[in-house]
Specification:
GNAT_dom, 8 strands, 4 helices, Aminopeptidase, single chain, globular, 32% helix, Bact_Acetyltransf, alpha+beta
């Protein structure tokens, strides 16, 4: 079993947490609400239908973010849970970055980069040598973050319905 230590900065702390903890579930709902509303507002001029939101949030339990093949990190700022980043192993050397999210009120404080870096460290701890992810056209801030952190756009690695951009990064081990 890989042991993950927590990462702490002046006001941020990042640590593994069960994907079904109350904080993780609330953050998943906030994440899904934001990205779904953003898509619907852009494409249909409306917010997500509440019934659809409930169905979609419930349909993705996040079980794939549970050990031994995955984990979820929760970022807290001043003790308040405000962000997540998940890792799931796709094969023995490839991890997928999932559910990278930071509440809007916490953005601009360096938390997103800390979350992604902590997820990369966690993926290395699970044996990953490479990280992949997908995102959408309208999530321009996410694409800029991934590029700034050394991710390169690549060919599709999945057929996800809303995926429009795919990225990868080699995870060079710090201990070599």
């Amino acid at each position: 079993m890989t042991r993950m230590s927590s990462t702490t900065t002046t006001a941020w702390s990042i640590a593994p947490e069960p994907h079904d903890s109350p904080a993780a579930v609330a953050l998943w709902r906030a994440y899904y609400t934001e990205v779904s509303d953003r898509w619907y507002l852009l494409h249909e001029g409306r917010r997500t239908d509440p019934d659809e939101l409930e169905r979609e949030v419930a349909a993705d339990s996040g079980d794939y973010l549970a050990p031994p093949g995955g984990l979820l990190l929760v970022a807290r700022y001043g003790g308040e849970p405000l962000g997540t980043a998940g890792v799931r192993m796709l094969d023995p050397v490839t991890a997928e970055l999932k559910r990278v999210f930071l509440h809007e009120r916490a953005r601009g404080r360096g938390g997103a980069a800390l979350l992604v870096t902590a997820a990369e460290d966690a993926a290395r701890g699970l044996g990953a040598e490479r990280m992949v992810l997908d995102t959408r056209n309208d999530l321009v801030e996410a694409r800029a973050l991934y590029t700034r952190l050394g991710y390169e756009e690549t060919e599709p690695h999945n057929q996800q319905l809303y995926a429009e951009h795919w990225f990868h990064k080699d995870l060079f081990r710090n201990d070599l």
